[in-house]
C-alpha cells in the first residue's frame, strides 16, 4: 500500500512539474513579433476595361484587415470594389448567423461590417458625394445596432437590423451601380466616379 501511495504522489508531483514548465513556456513572450503576411496578388474584376488598375483580392469573410487605406490616403476604385465584395460576404454571413441564432457570430460580422462601412464612407468623402456618405454612415450605424442587439441576445432585433443594413446597400446600389454578376459591377455614368 505504501508503495502504491508513493507512486501516486510521485506521479502527481511529476505531473505538476510538467504543467509548470508548459505554463512557463507558454507565457514567455516571443522576442520578435511575427511579420504580417504579404497581401495577396491583385485580381482583375470581371467587366473592367483593359489597362484599368486591378482590384486586390477580398479578405476572407469576417476580416476587414487591409480594407481601409491609411488615414488621409486616397482610396482607389479598385479598393472600393474589394471593400464592397467584403461587405457582401460579411452581410450574407451576418444574415445567416442572425437567422440561425448564432448571435456571437452575428455580433462579430456586424462589427466587421461597421468597419467596412467606415472605409466606404472615407471613399465617398474623398469624392464629395454627400448622399453616398450619408448612406455609408447609415450602413455603419445599422451594423453597430445589429452588433449591439446580438451582444444583448436579442435575435429578433439582430435579424431586423441586419435586414436594414441590406436595404441601405440596395438604396446606394440603385443610385451608383450598374452591371450584374455576369458582366461585373461598376459605377454608373451618373455617379461621375471612374
List the helices and strands and how they pair.
Layout: H1 2-27, H2 77-100, H3 103-126, H4 130-151, H5 155-176, E1 177-180, E2 184-187
Helix pairs in contact: 2-3, 2-5, 3-4, 4-5
Describe the protein.
The protein is mainly alpha-helical. It has a domain at 77-191: Four Helix Bundle (Hemerythrin (Met), subunit A). The chain is 61% helix and 4% strand. The chain has a two-stranded antiparallel ribbon.
Low-confidence runs (pLDDT<50, min 5 residues)?
Answer: 4-68
Provide the CATH topology of the domain at 77-191.
Four Helix Bundle (Hemerythrin (Met), subunit A)
Task: Write down the secondary-structure element order.
Answer: HHHHHEE
Instruction: Tell me the overall shape.
Output: globular
Biggest β-sheet: count, sense, barrel?
A: 2 strands, antiparallel
* Whole-angstrom Rg: 24 Å
Bin the strand percentage. Answer: under 5%
Q: In CATH, what is the class of the domain at 77-191?
A: Mainly Alpha
Tell me the helix content. 55-70%
CATH level 4 superfamily of the domain at 77-191: Cytochrome c/b562
Would you count the extended β strands for me? 2
Give the integer mean of the pLDDT values.
Answer: 76
Number of helices: 5
Strand arrangement across the biggest beta sheet = 1-2
**In terms of structural class, how would the helical and strand content be classed?**
mainly alpha
CATH architecture of the domain at 77-191: Up-down Bundle
N/C terminus separation:
86 Å
